[in-house]
Amino acid sequence: MTISYDDALRERIQAHLADHDRREVTDPTKRHAAVAVVLVDSEVGEDGVAPVPVGEQFASRQPPVSIVDSRLVHASGGAAFLLCRRASRLTSHAAQWALPGGRMDQGESAIDAALRELDEEVGIRLSGTAVLGLLDDYPTRSGYVITPVVIWGGGRLQPRPEPDEVVAIYRVGLHQLQREDSPRFIAIPESPRPVVQIPLGDHLIHAPTGAVLLQLRWLCLEGRHDPVDELEQPVFAWK
């Protein structure tokens, strides 16, 4: 069942975020980044927005077979969030699933950084009044502390992805986060911490994006305050 994109949902999410004692990570060895969790409306069966055909993106570079296939299908409908497939030519985390975002500039707040990156990567310009609140910080294996900023898009919006950074953008229904097979946790020999996997369509989304999406479900949709910062990333995302 899809979730209605309406004022009641916006008010519920905003109330849950306001009631949350946010966990902040202070680590001078890590750089700070912000991601935009943009909530929009969507239709069932809606395809993603792609600036360049996926086949052309991978024509000169073999993608990691374990994490890539052509499209995210059977995932849209009702209230949704924007999810990007990163371009294969990027020097770090190429071809991985990600929320719009990036490194914070000197003196920049997490909110300002998330809104700036949303404009630069996705072509969507929103003001600070659209921000509903912040999720917990998530420290990554690649040397960042990520602050997720939850943003109410106010409708469908029309993404215009930056081809050098984003191969496609998808509207993923929030109902996907509440699937019976979600979340999944697996063990790896490299770490005592469980690796989190979030099934979306026919894909598995791992931390850090998977951890952010799990808290989007637990806190924003269900009012649960469980931490996600100790959930592990797969080894391919450690660099």
TrEMBL record:
PROSITE patterns assigned to the protein according to its UniProt record, in alphabetical order: NUDIX (PS51462), NUDIX_BOX (PS00893)
Documented EC number(s): 3.6.1.-
InterPro entries: CoAse (IPR045121), Nudix_hydrolase (IPR020476), NUDIX_hydrolase-like_dom_sf (IPR015797), NUDIX_hydrolase_CS (IPR020084), NUDIX_hydrolase_dom (IPR000086)
Required co-factors: Mg(2+); Mn(2+)
GO terms of molecular function: coenzyme A diphosphatase activity; metal ion binding
Assigned keywords, A-Z: Hydrolase, Magnesium, Manganese, Metal-binding
Occurrences of domain Nudix hydrolase (ranges): 60-194
A Pfam match: NUDIX
Keyword Transcription regulation: no
Family, as annotated: Belongs to the Nudix hydrolase family.
Protein name per its UniProtKB record: Putative Nudix hydrolase NudL
Organism from which the protein derives: Mycobacterium attenuatum
